[in-house]
Amino acid sequence: MIEPLPAPVRRPRSGRFLVLAVVFICAACGLVYELELVALASYLIGDSVTQASVVLSVMVFAMGVGSLLAKRLRCRAAVGFGLIEAALALVGGCSAMALYATFAWFGGSRYALVAFSLAIGMLIGAEIPLLMTLIQRVSRRAEGDASGTVADLFAADYVGALVGGLAFPFLLLPQLGQLTSALLTGAVNAVAGGALVLLLFGRDLTPRARWVLLAANALVLATLALTTALVDDFEQAARRAVYGGQVRVAVQTHVQEIVLTGRAGAPLDLFLDGRLRVNGRDESRYHAALVGPALDGGPHGRVLILGGGDGLAAREVLRHPGVRSVTVVEVDPGLAQLAREDQELAALNAHAYQDPRLHAVIADPFQWLRGDGYSSGTYDVVITDLPDPGITASTKLYSQEFYALASRVLSPGGRLVVHAGPAKGRPRTFWTVASTVRAAGLTTFAYRATGRSAGFTAGPDRALDSAKSPHDWGFVLAARPAPHPFSAQGAASGLRLPAGTESLTPPSDAAAFPPSTLVHPRYAD
C-alpha cells in the first residue's frame, strides 16, 4: 500500500481550494462530534459542566496523541488520511447510538464516554499533519512560504469549527435529534475525506490502495445508512429498556425530552431529560407540602409559580379559597402544551390550564423576573417548582441573584417557597439553598415532607438503589425579615404544616454553607 512519488498536480489552484474545503468540512464534523458527546452525556449522566470538562479535556489530550502518531503516516499521507476519515466517520457517527445503548442496557455510559472521546480525539488530531502534507503537495507557494500555507489551513479549520458549532444546536439537534445528527455528520465526513483522496490524489495511489479506500468508504457509508434506517426502532427499544414497557408519550422539545409512562390505570410518571420529575404514587404529598404552608401563612390572592409547567402545583393552588389569579412561568412550551392536552396528565392536574384564573407565560423564569415580571405587579405567594439544584441547567435558578429578583415581586407580607431537594439525602445542597435564600435578604424556615417513594426505576436516577435514593423532599419557606412572619420553628405565626411534614433545625455549622451565586455555584456535590 506504499504510495509512489506523487505526480505534480496539474491545477494547483483548484486542488488547493479542494483541500481547504475538506479541511472546513472535517473541522465542522469534528466539532459536531464533540458537542454531541457533551450534550448526550449531560442528558444521560447529568452535571453538564463536569461532562463538558471531561469530554473536552480528554479530546484535546487525545488530539495531541493522534498528531504525534500521524507523523508515521506522512510518507503515505493520502491513503492514511482517507482511512482515518473513514474511521472517524464510523466512530463519530455511531458514537451517540453507542452511548445511548450502554446507558439503556448497562445502566451507565461514563466509560463509553471516555473511550469515544479518546478515539474521536485521536482521529481528529491525526488529520492536521496529514492535511498539511497534502496541501503542500498542491500549493503553488514556495517552500519558504510554508507559514502562509499553515495560516490558510488553520483559517479553514477554525471557520469550519464555527459553522459546525452553530449548526449543531440550531439546525441538526432540533431538526434531526441526537442520533440522526451524528449519523448524518459521519456520512458527510466520509464522503468529504474519500472524495478528496480519490479525486485529487487517486493517481498517486497503488491500485490496491484505491480499492481499499473505496471498500472502506463504501462499508462505512452502508453501515451509517443502515443504522439511520434503524434509528426509530433502536430508540423505541432503548426507551423500553430505560423506562419500561409503559411509555405513553415521548416528545423531544427544543428544551428537553419529555416522557410520560403509565398505562391501564398504572400511576402516571413524568420524566424530563431522563429524570423522574413527577411520580404518580406520591406527587400529591410533594405538591401539598410545597404549596400548603406558603398559602396558609397569609394572603394568597395573587400567586406566581416559577416552573411547574406540568400544572400540578397550580392544581394545589387553585384548590385554595381566595385565590384570584395564578401566573405560571414555564420555559418549555411543549411541557405546558402536554399538560393542557394530554388526557392523563390533564386529569392529574385537574385541568388547571382550563381554569380562567390561570395565566401561562412561556419564558425563562430568570429572564422573566428581570423583565416582564418586574413590571407585572407584586404577588402574595411565589412558588419555585423547579428541578433539583444539583442539576447544572437549573443552578442559576437557585442562585442569590435569582432569589433577589423573586423577592422584588413579593408584596408586603408575601411568602416565597423553594423546592430545595432532599433534606436528608443531600443536606449540603439543601442548607446551601437555605443560606442562598437568606443572602437575598429573606427570613427562612426549613421543613421537609416524608413518604417519598423509594427507588427509581428509570432514567439516570435508576442506578440509585433503595438505600441511596432520597426518601423526602426539602423546602425553604421565606419572607421579608420585618416583621418576622415565623420563628425558627414556625410557631410564632402558628404556621401549619401538612401531615407527614416536619420542621428542620438549621445545623450548628450553618456558616459552613455559603450562598450560591451565578459566578460561584455551589451545588456540584
Shape, principal axes of CA atoms: elongated
Distance between the termini: 53 Å
Q: Give the CATH superfamily of the largest domain.
A: Vaccinia Virus protein VP39
Number of strands: 12
Order of helices and strands: HHHHHHHEEEEHEHEHHEHEHEHEEE
How many separate domains? Answer: 2
Low-confidence stretches: 5-10, 488-492
Question: Helix count, per DSSP?
Answer: 14
Nearest-angstrom radius of gyration? 28 Å
Question: pLDDT average, as an integer?
Answer: 86
Characterize the largest beta sheet: strand count, sense, and whether it forms a barrel: 8 strands, mixed
**In percent, how much strand structure appears in the residues?**
5-15%
Q: Write down the CATH class of the largest domain.
A: Alpha Beta
Widest beta sheet: strand line-up? 7-6-5-8-9-11-10-12
CATH topology of the largest domain: Rossmann fold
Fraction of residues in helices?
40-55%
Class computed from helices, strands and strand pairing: alpha/beta
CATH architecture of the largest domain: 3-Layer(aba) Sandwich
Write the SSE topology.
Elements: H1 12-44, H2 48-70, H3 77-106, H4 110-138, H5 146-200, H6 207-229, H7 231-243, E1 247-252, E2 257-261, E3 269-272, E4 275-279, H8 283-296, E5 302-307, H9 312-318, E6 325-330, H10 333-341, H11 343-348, E7 358-362, H12 365-370, E8 379-385, H13 400-408, E9 410-419, H14 427-439, E10 443-450, E11 472-479, E12 501-503
Parallel strand pairs: 5-6, 5-8, 6-7, 8-9
Antiparallel strand pairs: 1-2, 2-3, 3-4, 9-11, 10-11, 10-12
Helix pairs in contact: 1-2, 1-3, 1-4, 1-5, 2-4, 3-4, 3-5, 3-6, 3-7, 4-5, 5-6, 8-9
